[in-house]
Specification:
heterodimer, A: mainly alpha, B: alpha+beta, 8 helices
Chain lengths: ~170, ~300
């Protein structure tokens, strides 16, 4: 497959589009998790990171795109956050697909748990929260997260473990 | 014992379990049942949660629009080039100024002399309290300005001009001494030929000859040639020089104030004084003219 893709360059629109489809949502979510900003400014920054990716498409290989996007987005965020120091607690939503098959009692309990988790997740240290949500909400593997954030897989695993330990404390009485 | 190991900092059994690396049964074996239930609850609850997903198409369109906008704002880059070109022009002017107009000044203080080798290998010995200036284009146009006294050893080549407030000295390659102090303009030629112009007069001076312009009169004389002016070896020599000028030279060498009666200023002095010892120098000046001198708090007073 690698041989087939040897000519694949980021400057081709189809390759760029596929990089966008794979990465845009997770990159935008990552920014929300990391900076607890609103989704609108996270999307704006993620868009700008893709603009930079396109501008540098000539010097980047497609496999470098992911870590370029994350690094660029973090840098851009730090610039804007300086201007605008507002940190909002992000809100969790029930996924539409799972809502219909549950009983009202379950939903009631789940809603309670959701509130507790929301609070606990907002209170997690930034590093644990980011990694934990990337894995849980966006189904990114530890290896994928490690590549995106330039961490070792072991570090990702430790953060996951610690995050879960913290969350356990708030669901003590459930 | 097993349990305390689990609590160690390096453990990752919870992330292993989330990733499916260890089964529910394996986790149950590691931790209390109550904990296991809590973790399972969290895992299931999180599976049903998410944050609001983005509108993919809208975002892709936004990126496209930003790229279009960026290409339209390209003129900004051009205006940056304008700044760069302005900066370059300023730098170029500075460079031209420095190269063509800026002057090099060599200034000597009381009692000091200096030897300067010019770009064409000509040598200038500058006597005390004198100023020599020349432009950066000196190698192409051998012209320099002098105030005070200097001895020139000029390499052969294009015309070499010494400009003074009192007149010009034009040579082709020779050795000569120029004095331009106050209203006294004197040129002595040691080798070759020099052309001296003062006001509308001009004179050719040959080796051993001197010419002096002083208060509208000119004077030529010849004497046995020495290789260099005596001041270069630490003495000032004079031949029928007004006393005023001798005293100025004395002050330049020793940096002392000298008071003297007005009527002696035009007495012509012939003689030499050393630059090394103020008392010997005073003797050399005063004895031939039968003057007396005294010192009063740093000032030397001459009297008849």
């Amino acid at each position: 497959m690698k041989n087939e893709n040897q000519k694949a360059t980021l400057c081709s629109e189809s390759v760029f589009r596929s990089v966008f489809d794979t990465n845009f949502k997770v990159l935008r979510n990552f920014l929300v998790y990391k900076f607890r900003g609103d989704t609108e400014s996270a999307e704006d920054i993620a868009q700008n990171a893709f603009v930079k990716l396109w501008e540098n498409c000539g010097i980047l290989q497609p496999e470098q795109a992911k870590s370029f996007l994350y690094t660029t987005a973090i840098r851009l965020s730090l610039n804007t956050i300086k201007h605008n120091q507002v940190v909002t607690n992000f809100e969790l939503q029930f996924q539409a697909k799972s809502a219909h098959k549950e009983s009202p009692e379950f939903l009631m309990e789940a809603s309670e748990l959701k509130d507790q988790l929301e609070k606990a997740i907002n209170e997690l240290p930034e590093k644990q929260r980011t990694v934990f949500l990337m894995n849980r909400f966006d189904n990114q593997s530890y290896t994928e997260i490690a590549v995106a954030l330039d961490l070792s897989v072991k570090a990702v695993e430790k953060r996951m473990h610690l995050a879960l330990l913290s969350l356990r404390k708030v669901v003590k009485n459930v | 014992m097993k349990f305390s190991m689990m609590e160690a900092q390096n453990e990752t059994y919870l992330s292993d379990w989330l990733a499916g690396k260890i089964s529910d049964a394996q986790l149950k074996a590691l931790i209390p049942a109550e904990d296991f239930l809590a973790y399972q609850k969290i895992k299931i609850a999180l599976d049903g949660l998410e944050i609001k997903p983005p509108d993919t198409e809208q975002n892709f369109e936004a990126i496209r629009q930003k790229l279009v906008d960026k290409t339209h704002t390209k003129p900004k880059v051009v205006s940056l080039w304008r700044y760069v070109s302005i900066a370059a022009t300023v730098l170029a002017f500075f460079g031209l100024y420095h190269f063509f107009i800026a002057q090099n000044d060599v200034i000597t203080d009381f009692g000091k002399s200096r030897v300067i080798t010019l770009a064409d290998n000509s040598k200038v010995s500058l006597n005390a309290k004198s100023t020599l200036s020349y432009g950066n284009l000196f190698p192409y146009q051998r012209t320099l300005q002098l105030q005070g006294e200097a001895f020139f050893e000029v390499e052969k080549g294009s015309p070499f001009t010494v400009e003074t407030p009192l007149g010009e000295v034009l040579v082709l390659g020779t050795k000569f001494n120029v004095v331009a102090i106050g209203d006294l303009f004197e040129v002595k030629c040691y080798e070759g030929k020099v052309k001296v112009s003062h006001l509308n007069q001009s004179t050719i001076v040959t080796p051993g000859e001197s010419v002096r312009f002083y208060k509208g009169t000119s004077e030529n004389w010849a004497e046995t040639t020495t290789a260099k002016p005596t001041w270069i070896s630490g003495e000032s020599s004079f031949k029928k020089v007004p006393m005023r000028y001798v005293i100025t030279q004395f002050q330049n060498q020793y940096n002392v104030a000298v008071k003297y009666p007005k009527h002696i200023e035009n007495i012509k002095f012939t003689g030499t004084f050393t630059h090394k010892d103020v008392n010997v120098a005073l003797q050399s000046i005063c004895l031939p003219l039968q003057f007396k001198w005294s010192k009063n708090s740093g000032t030397i007073i001459l009297s008849e």
